[in-house]
Amino acid sequence: MTKVEQRVIELINEHGTAEPKNICENMGIIILSLELPERVNGFVMNRKGIWFIVLNDMLNDDQKRFTTAHELGHIILHGYANSINMSCNTGFCVSRYEREADMFAAYLLLQAEYDQYMDYETLTLDQVSQITHIPQSRVDNLFF
Ligand SMILES: [Zn+2]
Known about the structure:
The chain is an alpha+beta fold. It is 50% helix and 15% strand. The chain has helices at residues 3-15, 20-27, 61-78, 96-112, 125-132, 136-143, and strands at residues 30-34, 40-47, 50-56, 87-88. The chain has a four-stranded mixed sheet, with helices on one face. Strand 2 and strand 3 (50-56) form a beta hairpin. The longest helix has 18 residues, at 61-78.
């Protein structure tokens, strides 16, 4: 099990849910939906000790759910080290942090669909993409 996967499992056990929005609520993280430049899906920031996840209000519900999970990953895994972090699709922002946040989001959204711990190795690329609503190209990058 990877370090990222381990943190996801711990988080779910701690909060009794794998739904990104509910975990944020439990943790006092404020989610905002604002008008942002098109290439930006979302970002996290910390003001006076309070975390905010800012989402692009042009995203559809699935995209917002994934971006919330991704940004939550930054908070959990990277914290202050990465407190202003743009999430984008352009390939410009590919870094270890981005990849880890994507993995975090994928694990979390997979877990949200199952009551029991799920072994991803048994799933196909297609299934992972369908379950998480993460585009196949991105899933391919992460798991295969
Ligand atoms: Zn990111």
